[in-house]
Amino acid sequence: MTSVYIALGSNLQTPIAQLEAALTALANLPATQLIEVSSFYQSKPLGPQDQPDYVNAVAHLHTTLPPLPLLDHLQQIENTQGRVRLRRWGERTLDLDILLYDNVICQTERLTLPHYDMTNREFVIVPLFEIAPNLCLPHGQPLVELMKQFENHQMQKIHTVSTD
Prior knowledge:
It contains 4 helices and 8 strands. With 164 residues, it is of the alpha+beta class.
């Protein structure tokens, strides 16, 4: 089984419910086990500020799905939950991104691993650190080092998830 970390985000149509439904869908993916989920955090939008705050989390999965079929499943979950891409970094019912796929480093037209900008996003690093504080990124950078730049983040923890 491969260790995978997925970022979840929503700011439309009851975001907490959107993330919970996405977690159920992730847990039901073929050849996949949901291992752990961070708390849900409320964060300001990355892009245009004329949209609601986001709810973000990170999920840890074990899977035998290869990266591109996993990406296909994630996009299917997004579409099932009403994802419409209106503008770059705009509002959305659900956004699912593969952050890390074991220690794989790749860049294709459809997928970049590790996620191309994850190290600059507090709404990714803070919840990832919550569930994997000893993680080292594929390039060798310890997550604990990345977390230092976000120690004074302004996100609010708004929901805790149990995977029992």
